[in-house]
Amino acid sequence: MTNALKNELNRFIEENGESFVDELLVEASTVKEKINTILEVGNIDLINNAFKLVGYALENKLDELRQFANVEGIAWATHSLTLSFKLEWVQAIRRTLWTFLQRYLNENKVDIEFFQLERQINSSIDQFLNAFFISYSAYKDELLKAQRDLVENLSVPIIPINPTVCILPVIGSIDYYRARVMEEKVLTEIGRLHIQTLVMDLSGIADMEAEVIDQLKKIIDGAALMGCTTAITGLRPDVVRSMVRLGVQFDGNTQMVGTLQQALSIYFTN
């Protein structure tokens, strides 16, 4: 496709911009209702971006198109916008573009290799979609990893109260994954801070699954191997019953104290 024809096609789309948008909104009926919401939430102008995609596709500007797709992918991932809307929108742009290209070719009796034009346009739009989804997925993975790292740090808050004693308040539900994270961080911090006594307060835990209790026992045993005594406080009746039912027993390095306040009075006195 010659540069002159590219310019003519772009001009035709621009001159018929209003009817292009009307046709596009008919094609993308679901997205139509979300356009203002997406603009407010993510500052993403779907109409303007549609014309930008059409321009890049017509002019075969693949580098600019891929860069545009990368920016779009990050924006959609950042604001957790629905991918199905994006796919419907781009496919609607494709269909609308072909409707107007056909109209232009019919009106102007242009002699052109249609299949060459079809390959270029569809290949450009497919490359946009591919780059968009890759960018979206990569950025989403980064966000999830950062959120998981933050949750892991918040879920195992080891608090020093003097040079040798630390408190680990455990609050909320504990699954096997969180218990594994606790094991890794507790043992790391025992070594880093030279903790001699770890007060593990479980008053914020209402219940524990068998595999979590087993993992808790491994944390205590690992701490003992590193020369750290564990004091468990605040065990609730349901948790105690589960431990008794499973036959869980702690060795002599583990101290059982009724409340965190009692444990603190013991270690501050000592």
Give structural notes.
The chain has 270 residues and is of the alpha/beta class. It is built from twelve helices and five strands. The protein has helices at 3-15, 17-27, 29-32, 35-42, 46-59, 62-78, 83-108, 114-155, 176-193, 210-225, 237-246, 260-269; strands spanning 159-160, 165-171, 197-204, 229-233, 254-257. The chain has a five-stranded mixed β-sheet with strand order 1-2-3-4-5. Helix 10 (210-225) links the parallel strand 3 (197-204) and strand 4 (229-233). The chain is rod-shaped, with a radius of gyration of 31 Å.
Fraction of residues in β-strands: 5-15%
Runs in which pLDDT lies below 50 for 5 or more consecutive residues are none
Question: Topology as H/E string?
Answer: HHHHHHHHEEHEHEHEH
The major beta sheet can be summarized as: 5 strands, mixed
Oligomer: single chain
Task: Show the helix and strand layout.
Layout: H1 3-15, H2 17-27, H3 29-32, H4 35-42, H5 46-59, H6 62-78, H7 83-108, H8 114-155, E1 159-160, E2 165-171, H9 176-193, E3 197-204, H10 210-225, E4 229-233, H11 237-246, E5 254-257, H12 260-269
Parallel strand pairs: 2-3, 3-4, 4-5
Antiparallel strand pairs: 1-2
Helix pairs in contact: 1-5, 2-7, 5-8, 6-8, 9-10
